[in-house]
From TrEMBL:
Protein name: Protein phosphatase methylesterase 1
Lineage: superkingdom: Eukaryota
Biological role: Demethylates proteins that have been reversibly carboxymethylated.
Stretches assigned to the AB hydrolase-1 domain: 80-319
Enzyme class: hydrolase
Keywords from the UniProt entry: Hydrolase, Serine esterase
Family: Belongs to the AB hydrolase superfamily.
MF annotations from Gene Ontology: protein methylesterase activity
Reactions the enzyme catalyzes: [phosphatase 2A protein]-C-terminal L-leucine methyl ester + H2O = [phosphatase 2A protein]-C-terminal L-leucine + methanol + H(+)
Region entry Disordered, spans: 1-39
Protein's UniProt keywords contain Hydrolase: yes
Active-site residue list: 155, 180, 307
Length: 345
């Protein structure tokens, strides 16, 4: 396949004519012309993740060939452990991490088959395997006595976060935040998922074209976030001489239903403070509606955003996370109860 076969996108958003004065007597004669608007390659050029996270790390799981890539930010407070959705990467949380790290630590993991993580079977996206991966990474990083952990999961990652939380095997789990995924809506959408995946653009002549496609197509609404996160979702195909999506989601269909079946009941059964962030109000199923009325979790509808809330409005997302930590008195060692003095460690 040659690059001439690739779908082309316009090189410039707009054409801007610089204004120049023809008279030296004009009061504006010495005013410099307005700079031209950025062309496509500049506007959609990748941004370095180091502007948002502090470091990256490869977590090697003992007795396996699995190596999971994580991005880290912050030095104090509880650990906000972030799990991205299908087709995304840990850098999906980059812009929000730059604000969260002021009061908490952030760790964003590339899940199996995504980003820079490398495993023995990148196509095994079963919920059991994904949960085992998260628990293995946390144990490898923190041992048997981790700091307070707040699990944050978007879409598929939200399902993984819920399944990990309900197992009750993670020491010092202090909170659970699920981003825009509800069992009923997710299961209903699965019948359309293959069609959606097959209709998306698959080949890009450059990383900039892929970033532009994600914004123009509406999957992401924040250009800066796309400039950080999209490059990590691509790989270069030497045979086709172009960039393609790294995650082969089309080949993992047999696992999709397992991500979401029983999710609402598991979410409600998770024994920690819970926050559900939604991009629309029509997404609560019966179990969650009853649970919300009973005060079992906090829900916030985030306006003017798409599915990837953490990317579209990163500052608002970060504020919601930090408010959740504050409201539930989650400190670096777990839930802080006023008046209770912790033993020295």
């Amino acid at each position: 396949m040659s690059t001439s076969d690739l779908t082309s996108l316009p090189e410039n958003e707009e054409q801007h004519e610089q204004q120049q004065s023809s008279s030296s007597d004009s009061a504006f004669a010495n005013v410099p012309p307005r700079p031209p608007l950025l062309n496509t390659s500049d506007k959609y050029s990748p941004l370095d993740w180091l502007s948002y996270f502090d470091q990256e790390e490869d977590v090697c799981i003992p007795d396996t060939e699995n190596v999971f890539h994580v991005y880290k930010a912050g030095t104090e407070g509880p650990v906000i452990f972030c799990l991205h959705g299908g087709g995304y990467s840990g850098l999906s949380f980059a812009l929000s991490a730059s604000k969260i790290k002021e009061k908490a630590r952030v760790v964003a993991m590339d899940l199996r088959g995504h980003g820079k993580s490398v495993t023995e079977n990148d196509l095994d996206l079963s919920i059991e395997t994904l949960c085992a991966d998260v628990l293995a990474v946390l144990k490898t990083m923190y041992g048997d006595s981790p700091p307070a952990i707040v699990l944050v999961g978007h879409s598929m990652g939200g399902s993984v976060a819920v399944h990990v939380a309900v197992k009750k095997t993670l020491p010092n789990l202090a909170g659970l935040i699920v981003v825009d995924v509800v069992e009923g809506t997710a299961l209903a959408s699965l019948v359309h998922m293959q069609k959606i995946l097959s209709s998306r653009m698959k080949h890009f002549s450059s990383v900039e074209k892929a970033i532009q496609w994600s914004v123009k197509g509406g999957s992401l609404r924040n250009i800066d976030s796309a400039r950080v996160s999209i490059p990590a979702t691509l790989k270069f195909d030497d045979s086709k001489k172009c960039y393609v999506h790294q995650a082969c989601l089309e080949e993992t269909e047999k696992y999709w239903r397992g991500w979401y079946e029983g999710l609402s009941e598991k979410y409600l059964a998770s024994p920690v403070p819970k926050l559900l962030l939604l991009a629309g109000t029509d997404r609560l199923d019966r179990a969650l509606t009853i649970g919300q009325m009973q005060g079992k979790f906090q829900m916030v509808v985030v306006r003017h955003t798409g599915h990837a809330i953490q990317e579209d409005v990163p500052e608002e997302f970060a504020t919601l996370v930090l408010n959740f930590i504050s409201r539930n008195r989650i400190g670096p060692n777990g839930i802080e109860i006023p008046g209770l003095r912790r033993p020295s460690q």
